[in-house]
Amino acid sequence: MQEADPTDALAVLGDETRIAILRALAEAEEPLPFSELRRRADVRDPGRFNYHLSKLREYFVREEDGGYALREAGSRVVAAAGVVPGPTTSVDDAPQPDAGTDNADGCPVCGEEDCERLFHVHLSVPWR
């Protein structure tokens, strides 16, 4: 998989409908089906909604069995933008992995399976 161009990814965020979709997903406690996500984002035209959702799926949203959910990048964008009110979590409050446990799901910080970073600078996501 080739590296995503940050300019292209950020350009996807330049639309109010897409921000409404990200906000709806951030506020949800579980993946949302297409129709429920469209309702929560307050978009009446299913074709228009599908167009914007498909743009977000390139970088920020993933499709799951139960519907749509934020990817790690989507969660970070929402947290950085502050579009979901709620308590903040400091790095000290974030759950720490147990020493000696194998993290089969990937990096305990970013979630990537093949992460080779020595340092991570990120925002904690209070709703995940």
UniProtKB/TrEMBL annotation:
Q: Could you state a single Gene Ontology molecular function term? A: DNA binding
Q: Which SUPFAM superfamilies match?
A: Winged helix' DNA-binding domain (SSF46785)
Q: Which InterPro entries match?
A: ArsR-like_HTH (IPR011991), DUF7347 (IPR055771), WH-like_DNA-bd_sf (IPR036388), WH_DNA-bd_sf (IPR036390)
Record key words, sorted = DNA-binding
Q: Name one Pfam family in it.
A: DUF7347
Positions of the region Disordered?
Answer: 84-105
Residue span(s) of domain DUF7347: 6-80
The reply on keyword Ubl conjugation is: no
| Name of the protein in question | DNA-binding transcriptional regulator, ArsR family
